Amino acid sequence: xxxxxxxxLAIATLWLAVGLAGLVAPRNLGLIRRLLFPLxxxxxxxxxxxxxxxxxxSPTARVLPLGLPDLPFRARIxxxxxxFLLLLGGVAAGISVFASGYIRRGEGxxxxxxxxxxxxxxxxxxxVLIADDAYFFMVAWETMALASFFLVTSDHRHxxxxxxxxxxLLIAHVGAIAILLCFGALQGGSGDYxxxxxxxxxxxxxxxxxxxxxxxxxxxxxxxxxxLHVWLPEAHPAAPSPVSALMSAVMLKTAVYGVxxxxxxxxxxxxxxxGVIALATGLLSALGGIVFAAVQTDMKRLLAYSSIENxxxxxxxxxxxxxxxxxxxxxxxxxxxxxxLYHCLNHACFKSLLFLCTGSVLHATHERxxxxxxxxxxxxxxxxxxxxxxxxxxxxxxxxNGFASEWLLLQAFLFTPGLPHSYLNMLVPVAAAVVALxxxxxxxxMVKFYGVVFLGQPREPKLAEARDAGAWERVGLAWLAAACIxxxxxxxxxxxxxxxVTRALTGFGMASLAEGWLFLAPIQxxxxxxxxxxxxxxxxxxxxxxxxxxxxxxxxxxxRTGPWDCGFPHxxxxxxxxxxxxxxPVRQVFEPFFRIEQQVPAPSDARPFFREVxxxxxxxxxxxxxxxxxxxxxxxxxxLQRGRISVYLTYSFVTLLLLLLFVR
Amino acid sequence: xxxxxxxQLVNLLAAILLLLAxxxxxxxxxxxxxxxxxxxxxxxFLSTMLVAWLTGQNHLYGSAALTLALKVIALxxxxxxxxxxxxxxxxxxxxxxxxxxxxxxxxxxxxxxxLALPISQLAGTVTRSTLGIALACVxxxxxxxxxxxxxxxxxxxxxxxxxxxxxxxxxxxxxxxMVVEFGVALDVLVGALILGIFLFQxxxxxxxxxxxxxxxLKEQ
Amino acid sequence: MISAAGFAAQFTELMxxxxxxPVLTGWVNQCRAWLQNKSAPGLLQPYRVLAKLxxxxxxxxxxxxxxxxxxxxxIFGCLALAAAIVPTxxxxxxxxxxxxxxxxxxxxxxxxxxxxxxxxxIGTAFGSLxxxxxxxxxxxxxxxxxxxxxxxxxxxxxxxxxxxVETLAHRELVIHPSLAFAGVAFTMVSLAENxxxxxxxxxxxxxxxxxxxxxxxxYSGRHLAMIEWAASLKLFVYSxxxxxxxxxxxxxxxxxxxxxxxxxxxxxxxxxxxxxxLALIETVSAKMRIFxxxxxxxxAFLLAVLAMLVHVLxxx
Lengths: 664, 220, 316
Prior knowledge:
A: two-stranded antiparallel ribbon; 23 helices; 69% helix
C-alpha cells in the first residue's frame, strides 16, 4: 500500500502544480479548458485507480519531510482513507471534465485563478483524507475551507454571494474550532497529537464523550447537519456549478470521513447514547432538509437542501452503527456502516450529476429560478436524460443506486428489535418511519425539480434559444450518470469494495454474506435479498414485451394536435403549476417547520401583489439572538476605541508589560 | 385449544382497545365518538368475559355484565340523548391538527409501555403485558380531553379514561372487589348525569357548549 | 434454487395477474353499481374499454416529449412486475429473491414518479395539478405501506414476501394484534393509492376533485389503454398484498403443484369478497376535501407506525 500512499501524495502535488500552471496565464482560456482541467480529470482517475488498489492492502504510514521541526506531517492510508479517496478521485474526474467545458470568462474571478483554487481544493481534500496527525489534518482542513471559500465567492460582484461566502467562512471556522478542541480532548493529556498516539490513549467516559460531541458538532458544521446547516443553502447556490458539485459530493463527505475516523477509529469504545444523538440529529436534518427542499424556488437551493437531507440519512446510518457497536452486535454494525458508506458514494454521484445539470441549464438560460424555466427536455435532451437518471437515483427508486443504499439502511433498521434496551427498541421503528417518510418526500421534491425544469412548456420566451450542453460537459455528465447506474446495478460488487473498510472499523465484513455477485443479501438470503440486475431485466423485459405486443397487434396511428384545453382557448405556459404551487401541499402539511411571512393583496387591489417568504425558524431562534448578543458585547468593547495612535500604542505597551510580568 | 390462544386473544382485544382509543383521538364527529365509545365498552366486556373464563374468577362475570349494561347500553344512550337535546351533532375541530395529536399519542404509548414494564414484570397474571396498553388508553383519553374544546367530547374522554382504568384492573389483578366496582360504576353514571346537567347550564349561560367560553368567567 | 417449476409458477402468476386485473376492476364497478341501485355494466366491461382504446388513434399534443410516449409502457411494466412479485398462488417464485417488500414499494414509487412526470410533460394546468396531488398522496401513502410491510417483516423475520406468507399461513397459528393496526392502515392506504373514495373518485372528471384522472387527461388511444390497464393492475397488486398479509390461507407453500391448483379458486373467492368490500366502503363513505387527504393518510401512516410499536411491545 505504500505505493498508494506515494501515488496519492504525488497526485496531490500534481494537482497543486496544475493549479499553479493556471496562474501562469490566468486569461488563457484555451490552455485552461483544453489542457489543465482535463489533466486534473486524468489525475482524478489515477487517484481512483490507485485507491481502488489500496483498498485491499494493509495500512501504511510515513512521516513527511514537511511541517515544523519537532512536529512533522504524518500521512497514513488505510481502507477508510482509500475508500474516500476512491470517491474523491472518481467524482472529481467527472466534474473536472465537465468544468473544462463550463469555465468561461466574465464570471468574476478570472479562469486561471479559478483553476488554481479548484485544484488546491482537490489537493487539500486528498490530504485531509491521508493526514495522520491533528496538525497536518487541521492544515489541510483549513486549506480546504479557504480554497472553497474563494471558489464560492468567484462571482464576488454580487453582494448576496459575498454574504453567502462570509456566512460559510464563519460557520466553517466555528466548526474548525470544535474539531481543534476535539483533538485536544482526544490526546488525553499525553501531548501526542499524532493519530497513532490518540488510538492508544485510555480515556474516561467524560473525555471520550466530550471528544465525540465536539467531533459531531465540528464535522457536522461542515457536513450541514442541523442546526449548523444554514450556510449550505446559501453557499452551494452561490458557487459555480462544478464547485457546488464538488462541495456537495466530496467536501461534505470529508466531514463524514472525519467523524468516522474520530469516533470509530480514534476513540474506539462507543456508548449507545452517542448513537441516539447522531441518529436523532441525522433524522432531524433529513426530514428538515427535504421539507425545505420542497418549498424552494431556486433549483440550486433545492439541491442544496436535498444535500442536507442526504447527509442526515448518512448520519442516521452512522448513529445506527454506533448503537449496534455499543451493544457489540458486530455484523449489524457492519451492515449499518456499509449502508452509510454506500450512501456516501451514491450521494456523491447523483448529487454532483444534478448540480452539473443545473450548471448546463444555467449557462443555457441564465436562469436559476424554477419559475422561469420549463420545457427544456426539447431544447436540451442530453442534459434532460442525464438529469432524469439523477432524479430517479436521488429519489431512491430501484434499480438505480439511491435505492440500493436506502434498502440496506432500512434492512439495518429491520434488524434492530433485539437490542437489549427497551426504549431503544421502541424508538427504532419510529426512526425507520422517518427514514421512509424522507425517502418518499424526496420523490416529491425530485418530481417538482425535474417536472418544472425539464417538462411542460417554456415559461419564458428566451428559453427557446437554450442550447444543449457541449461535448466536454456531456462527457462529464455521462460519466456520473453511468456511475449512478453501475453502482445501482451491482451492489454486491460495491459491498465487496466496502468490505475492507467495515472489517477495519467494526471487525466484521459484509462481502462474504452477499449471495454471489447477483444477489444482495445481508445476513441471510432468507431474511432479505435484492438483485437489481434481475429486477432491471424484469422491468425491461415486461416493458419490451408490452411495447412489442401493442406495436405488432395494433396500428400505430397517431395525430399531433394542441393539448386539451377543456373548452378554454387561451391556455398558455403561465397556467402551469409553478414551483411555489408544487411546494404548497408540503408547506401546508409541515407548517410548523417554517416561519412564513405572507403579504396577501386586498380583493379591491388594482395591482394585486402576492408575496410569501419561507424562513428557517432556527435562523430566528438561534442565529439572530447569538448575532445580537455578539453585537452587544462588541459595542461594550468600543469604549477602547479612541482613534488616537498614542492610545493604541499605550495598549500595546501595557499588554507587553503584563505579558512579561506574567511569563517572568 | 382455546386456553392456548386465550392470552393471545386478550392481547388482540387490548390492541383493538388501543386502536379504538386512537380512533377516538382522530375523530371529529361527536356521533361517531359516542359509537366508538360504545365499541370500546363492548371490547372491554369481551375481554373481561375472556379473562373471567380463562382464570375462572367468577366475580369477573359480574363486572362484565356491569360493563355491558353501563358502558355499552346506558351511557351511550344518555350521551345520544344529550347531543340530541343540545343539538351538537356536527364536526368539532380539534385544537391541534389530528396527525400532530396522534404523534403525541405515539410518544405517550412508548412512555406508557416503559412505565408499565417494571410493574407488569411483578404481576403474575397471564395478561400482564396488556398493562402498558391500559395505561396508554388512560393517557390517550386524557389527551383527547385536552385537545377538544367542546364539552361533550370532553365528557366522552373522561368516560373513556375510566375504561382504561377498568381494563388495567382486569389485566393486572383480575379486577377489583365487587363493592368497589359497583361504587365506581355508580360514580361514572352519576358523573355523566351531573355533567349532562352542567352542560345545559353552560349552554344557557353562553349559548354554546364550547368550554373556551369558560375563560370569560376569569376575573380580569 | 431456481427451478423450471418455479419459472412455470412465476409465469402463470404473471399472466393470471395481467389477465385477471381488468376483471377485478369490472367486478368492483359492478358491485358498486348494485349497491347504489344502478344497473351494472358487465364483468368484462373493462376489456371492452381496453379493446376500443387500443383500436383508436393516438391524439398527441404538439409538445409531448419521448418521456410522455414511453411512460405508459414503463408504468405497465412496473406494475406487471409488482404483480409478479406478490405471492398469489404459491410461494416458490424465482423473482422473490430479486425483490422483497421494500423493492415492491420502490417499484410502485417508480411507477408513480413516471406517471407524475408524464402528467407534467404537456404543461397544462390539469396535468401539473394532478401530478402534484398524486405526489401529495404518494409521499404519505408510500411510507405507510412500507411500515405495514415492515410490521409483517418483523413478525416473520424476513422482508421477503414469500417468507412472510409462509410464516403467516403455514406456521403455527399465532394471533398478531399488530396486524389489526396494520390492516386498518393498509385499507386506508389502498383506498388512497387506487384513487378511490374518500380520497379520489375514479368515476369523475370534475376538476376540483380529480387526482389520477387529471394526470392522464392528455393520454388517448393505446397509451391510455396501457395506463388504464396499469391502474387495474395496481388495484390487483394492492388486493393481493392485502390478501397475502392478512388472509394468507390458501396460498400454496413451495412448489406444491396440487396446492397451486387448489389455490386458484380460493384466490378468486378472496378477491371477489375483497372487491365487494371495497365497493361497500366506497358506497358508504363520502369524498373528502383534498386538504383532508394528508390528514387521512397521516393517520394511516401513524397507525402503521403504531403497528410496528405494538409488535415490539406485545409480541416480542
